[in-house]
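I am still getting used to backbone structure tokens and would like to learn alongside you. To get us started, please write out a protein record for me. Start from the sequence, derive the backbone structure tokens from it, and show both lines together. Once you have written the record down, we can walk along the chain together:
***
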Amino acid sequence: MECLIISYAEEDKIYIPTDQLSLVSKFSAEEGVQPTIHRIGGSRWDKTKKRVQEDVEEIAKDLIMLYAKRKIAKGFAFSADTEWQKELEAAFYLSGYKGPDKSYRRCKRGYGIILTYGKIDLR
């Protein structure tokens, strides 16, 4: 059986069968940053995993709070299109021009979201 071998500190190794390579991801960090290699099952690895888990939980709490605040925040609610606005838009119909027509439809869709939910988050 063919395997990918991943080396750790003190000559520890993990053998990953080629049919399970989807379980492996490439290390990515800022340019020039080298990963710290730990021994498999060592206390340093356990401490690092625990610290990362705590950091992830903190980020998750922050995101939950952020989205809760956004959900209850008051937005500016537009009124529905008036007859005058519909007449004005009809006068500028952009038949045959894909770019402006597509932009117009996107704006109207966003406007519909604002009317439905009372706000839209553009961040």
Remarks:
- The helical segments are 43-72, 83-91, 98-117.
- Strands lie at 3-7, 13-17.
- Residues 1-38 form one domain.
- The chain has three domains: 1-38, 41-73, 83-117.
